Amino acid sequence: MKVSVQAVAVWGKIAPSHSITAIMITDDQQTIVTGSQEGQICLWDLSSELKISSKEILFGHTASVTCLAKAREFEKQPYVVSATENGEMCVWNVTSGQCIENAKLPYRHTAIYYYHCSFRMTGEGWLLCCGEYQDVLIIDAKTLGVLHTLSSSQSSDWVTCMCIVHSARIQEDSLVAVSVTGVLKVWDLSSSLNTIQERQSVCEKESKSLDCINCQAVRFCTYTERLLLVVSSSCWQVYDYCDFSLLCTEFCKSGQCFAGGEVLAAHRLIIWTEDGHSYIYQLLNSGLSRSIYPADGKVLKETVYPHLLCFTGVRENKSFPFVMGFMNERKEPFYKVLFSGEASGRITLWHVPDVPVSTFDGSPKEIPITATWTLQDNFDKHHSMSKGIIDHLCASKDGIGSAVVSSSVYIPSLDKLVCGCENGKIFVTLGLKTARARLLENISLLKDNLPYKVLNGHSSRVTCLLYPHDKSVRFDPSWLLSGGQDSIVMCWDIFTGGILHQFSLQSGPVTELLRSPEDYKLKDHSIVCCVCSDHSVAILHLQKKVCLLHARKHLFPVKKIKFDPVENLLIVGCEDDSVYIWEIETGTLERHETGETAKAILTSIEDSEYLVADALLPESQESKRSKNAGYKPSSSYKHGMVSYNLTHTEKSSDKV
């Protein structure tokens, strides 16, 4: 019988970090969805008056979120899909916060578009994806399995941006995409349904090289069905969709870079920049004049020119990159909304007028900010918010400030909560009793009756903690390991608080502390592995208090660490897909491989155990087997997805 465990997250006065890397608004304009560099998804309530309030944080990803998109017809199923740097994909129900489906594919997506043709397709539809791979992937929206690829007959390359063209005039759907080299390609979707289902090759029907690089966005004007907007970092251009002739070009100001754009209405555009500015233009002369081909074969004559109507106001003192988008909803409440998310975690909304106009003297008019909000604003709004779980231990003498927790680990067998802080101190206290006293606001119990220890040894931020005995009895139950920004690994006696040994690595901040697998063959088995910020990997023998191996030659960040139990080798896979093979007993680099040879090495030892850290939500063996079998998602991994509610009540005791 499986036991359901409810995970609870409790924050103090400081909101969790949420550096926004992707943002979208759902079709009903009631929810804002943001993805973060930390890997979490945050859901925000959006009222009919365009007021923002954070609702839930969804946990499940292990890497930075690269893009978000809707994953169903929203009126039927309120699903969105998220993708990350390391190939993870999740489908979320934004109403309940549940993870509906997940998968891990060897692709890094940068843009996803949902496509479903109800009278021609069966199933839940497709996710059309582009990113750091050639051409366009077609992924099943229900299973997240790869169905097919839209390939190129020539100039096959990465696609930087794309859009789906719905033409009501000819009742055909197409996909327009622009590659990293500036080649525009058009694939038929409607007429290719049967070909795709039969797994036959589907190539583009049209291709044209555009005079632009670093393309950021491409958009089709559904109002005229004639104009195509292409935005690059240095300029934006308008083309005639019928023959792809150039109609207009507008360059950005010095010091600015365009980041995207959208069609507001017929002959009206909005363009935004990387630093959060946006501009609304009116295209004069309608853009429908017939293209003129000069007799000398020079470039086409431009037939429209832009007139700047409005620009949006921005907050002062901004120093963070922006991700922006535009929502033009034709249902109640009929808002046109420009939205942005910052790396600081701030969301900003602008209500764009239905008919933007300039001032009386013809100069552009400023559109003020309608709403702006952060997670911290939610925390500051509710004054009944409880303090951090160890604030009573690490408060300063004047009672004003407190140490910031930078890493933590809970040891269930001892009921001990270990928190490493930015100032280098490590606090050890009783976990459940402290949490209960904090939640029930039993301040007297916190201050007087709960024992704790303070471990002093690191000179700067504690970056990681590991209690190896909790997962393997071969480690001494008194050992607690900590890694710091000072490039030191400390081995503590958790019962006495004394330092057993100090490993000085001189390799930059320690980023991870990892247990060796169960089949590791060296004697005593008291082996741990640590990864440092300079991409080096060190193997530490805790019993002998020596560093057995310090592998320093990795040029790229470490992505995988495996042990070969037969040959007793350490195999390190890096982000550039190269593999380093180290002989543990001698400490020598035996081989360095790249390309197909490196992949073959990792595949040949697929059954050996990965070196992994203790996670908040550990995987079962069933999940590991399922992942090895073609990345098929497992139910155990799906249940590991966690959503934490951010809505607050007036009294903490009511919440409990």
Automatic annotation (TrEMBL):
The keyword Disulfide bond does not apply. Residues 621-656 are annotated as: Disordered. Coiled coil: none annotated. GO terms for biological process: protein localization to plasma membrane. The keyword Nucleotidyltransferase does not apply. WD repeats lie at residues 20-54, 58-102, 455-502, 551-592. SUPFAM superfamilies: WD40 repeat-like. Keywords: Phosphoprotein, Repeat, WD repeat. GO terms for cellular component: cytoplasm. This is WD repeat-containing protein 72. It comes from Fulmarus glacialis.
